[in-house]
Design brief:
Blueprint: H1 2-28, H2 31-48, H3 55-75, H4 78-95, H5 108-135
Helix pairs in contact: 1-2, 1-3, 1-4, 2-3, 3-4, 3-5
Length: 136
C-alpha cells in the first residue's frame, strides 16, 4: 500500500512537473542550466509549502531534486526518475520513525543518506552513463 501511495502522491506528480519544467527550461538554456534551475524552483516550492523545516530537509530536498532531475536529463525520460523516486521514498518511509516497519538503530539520517541516496545515486549514474555511451 505504501508503494502505491508513494507512486501516486509523491513520485508520479512530482516527476511529471519536474520533467515538464526541465523540458521547458531546456528549450532556452543548456541542459545543466535547466537542471539547476528546476532544482532551485522545486526547492523554492518546498520552502513555500513548509517542507524545509529542518537542517536535514535543507540537505535532502535540494540534493534529491537535483539527483532526480539529473536522472531525467541523462535518461531522456521521466520513467527512470519516477522509478528511483518510488523505490527510494518507499524504503525510506518504511524504515522512517513514523512507519517503523523496519527497526533502524543509530543515526537515521546517515543510514538514509548512505543506503538510499549516495550508493544508489552512484550506481544509477554509472548505469545511465554506460547506457548513454553505448547508444552514442
Amino acid at each position: 500500500m505504501l508503494l502505491i501511495a508513494v507512486f501516486f502522491i509523491e513520485a508520479f506528480p512530482e516527476e511529471i512537473v519536474r520533467g515538464y519544467l526541465y523540458s521547458r527550461l531546456e528549450v532556452s538554456f543548456s541542459p545543466w542550466t535547466a537542471l539547476l534551475m528546476q532544482t532551485v524552483l522545486f526547492t523554492l516550492f518546498a520552502f513555500l509549502v513548509g517542507s524545509l523545516y529542518s537542517t536535514e530537509q535543507w540537505l535532502f530536498i535540494p540534493g534529491f531534486g537535483f539527483l532526480l532531475g539529473y536522472f531525467r536529463m541523462l535518461s531522456g525520460s521521466i520513467w527512470f526518475s519516477i522509478g528511483f523516486h518510488v523505490a527510494m521514498m518507499t524504503v525510506t518511509q518504511a524504515i522512517g520513525p513514523i512507519q517503523k516497519l523496519i527497526e533502524v538503530e543509530g543515526n537515521f539520517f546517515m543510514v538514509r543518506f548512505l543506503s538510499f541516496v549516495l550508493i544508489p545515486a552512484i550506481v544509477s549514474s554509472a548505469i545511465l552513463h554506460l547506457k548513454k555511451s553505448r547508444t552514442e
